[in-house]
Amino acid sequence: VWINIAKLGTGIFLFDKYIVVKSASSLKVFSNKCTHAGCRINKEINGQLVCPCHGSHYDSLTGKVLQGPAGLPLSTIPFSTDAKTGEIIIKI
After folding, report:
1. Which residues on neighbouring strands pair with residue 21, listed in sequence order?
2. Which of 2, 11, 49, 58 has its CA 20 to 30 A from that of 43?
Protein backbone atom coordinates (compact mmCIF):
# COMPACT_ATOMS: atom_id res chain seq x y z
CA VAL A 1 0.00 0.00 0.00
CA TRP A 2 1.34 3.45 -0.95
CA ILE A 3 0.20 6.65 0.74
CA ASN A 4 1.68 10.02 -0.20
CA ILE A 5 2.29 11.62 3.19
CA ALA A 6 3.72 14.78 1.67
CA LYS A 7 0.20 15.65 0.48
CA LEU A 8 -1.44 14.90 3.83
CA GLY A 9 0.02 17.61 6.03
CA THR A 10 -0.14 16.89 9.76
CA GLY A 11 -2.98 15.20 11.61
CA ILE A 12 -4.82 11.91 11.99
CA PHE A 13 -5.89 10.19 8.79
CA LEU A 14 -8.30 7.25 8.76
CA PHE A 15 -7.92 4.90 5.81
CA ASP A 16 -9.67 1.65 4.91
CA LYS A 17 -7.32 -0.55 6.97
CA TYR A 18 -4.86 1.90 8.50
CA ILE A 19 -4.60 4.98 10.66
CA VAL A 20 -1.76 7.36 9.84
CA VAL A 21 -0.76 9.88 12.50
CA LYS A 22 1.60 12.57 11.28
CA SER A 23 3.04 15.36 13.39
CA ALA A 24 5.86 17.77 12.62
CA SER A 25 8.35 15.36 14.21
CA SER A 26 6.91 11.85 13.89
CA LEU A 27 4.92 9.46 11.75
CA LYS A 28 3.02 6.41 13.01
CA VAL A 29 0.85 3.85 11.28
CA PHE A 30 -1.64 1.73 13.23
CA SER A 31 -4.12 -0.95 12.28
CA ASN A 32 -7.64 0.45 12.42
CA LYS A 33 -8.94 -2.83 13.84
CA CYS A 34 -10.11 -2.48 17.45
CA THR A 35 -8.36 -5.00 19.69
CA HIS A 36 -11.60 -5.79 21.53
CA ALA A 37 -13.91 -7.19 18.84
CA GLY A 38 -12.20 -6.25 15.58
CA CYS A 39 -14.49 -3.39 14.58
CA ARG A 40 -13.11 -0.72 12.28
CA ILE A 41 -12.08 2.44 14.10
CA ASN A 42 -13.60 5.25 12.07
CA LYS A 43 -13.58 8.29 14.33
CA GLU A 44 -11.15 10.63 16.06
CA ILE A 45 -12.24 12.87 18.93
CA ASN A 46 -9.77 15.27 20.58
CA GLY A 47 -6.75 13.15 19.64
CA GLN A 48 -8.38 9.88 20.65
CA LEU A 49 -9.23 7.11 18.20
CA VAL A 50 -12.71 5.79 18.96
CA CYS A 51 -14.24 2.42 18.13
CA PRO A 52 -17.91 2.74 17.13
CA CYS A 53 -18.93 -0.74 18.30
CA HIS A 54 -18.24 -0.74 22.04
CA GLY A 55 -16.65 2.66 22.71
CA SER A 56 -12.99 1.81 23.24
CA HIS A 57 -10.70 4.85 23.05
CA TYR A 58 -7.03 4.78 22.04
CA ASP A 59 -4.29 7.41 22.26
CA SER A 60 -3.57 8.51 18.68
CA LEU A 61 0.17 8.99 19.34
CA THR A 62 0.86 5.64 20.99
CA GLY A 63 -2.11 3.36 20.23
CA LYS A 64 -2.46 2.76 23.99
CA VAL A 65 -5.93 1.99 25.36
CA LEU A 66 -7.40 4.97 27.21
CA GLN A 67 -10.88 3.51 27.77
CA GLY A 68 -12.04 -0.11 27.44
CA PRO A 69 -13.44 -2.62 26.90
CA ALA A 70 -10.32 -3.14 24.72
CA GLY A 71 -7.37 -4.38 26.76
CA LEU A 72 -4.56 -4.32 24.20
CA PRO A 73 -3.09 -1.36 22.29
CA LEU A 74 -3.59 -0.92 18.56
CA SER A 75 -1.16 -2.86 16.40
CA THR A 76 1.66 -0.77 14.97
CA ILE A 77 2.12 -1.35 11.24
CA PRO A 78 5.67 -1.42 9.87
CA PHE A 79 6.37 0.98 7.02
CA SER A 80 9.17 2.61 5.10
CA THR A 81 9.37 6.00 3.41
CA ASP A 82 10.39 6.67 -0.18
CA ALA A 83 12.67 9.71 0.05
CA LYS A 84 12.07 10.74 -3.58
CA THR A 85 8.28 10.60 -3.70
CA GLY A 86 7.37 11.26 -0.06
CA GLU A 87 5.22 8.13 -0.02
CA ILE A 88 5.09 5.65 2.80
CA ILE A 89 5.08 2.01 1.89
CA ILE A 90 3.07 -0.11 4.29
CA LYS A 91 4.35 -3.63 4.55
CA ILE A 92 1.41 -6.01 4.57
Report:
1. 12, 28
2. 2
pTM, entire model: 0.87
Burial 12-39 (b: 16+ CB within 10 A, else e): bbeeeebbbbbeeeeebbbbbbbbbeee
How far is CA 3 from its chain centroid?
A: 13
pLDDT per residue over 11-59, tens digit each? 999 988 899 998 888 889 999 999 999 999 999 999 999 999 999 999 9
Residues 27/40, Cβ–Cβ less than 8 Å: no
- Dihedral of the CA atoms 59, 43, 36, 17 (nearest 10)? -100
Task: Give the C-alpha separation, 92 to 73, whole Å.
Answer: 19
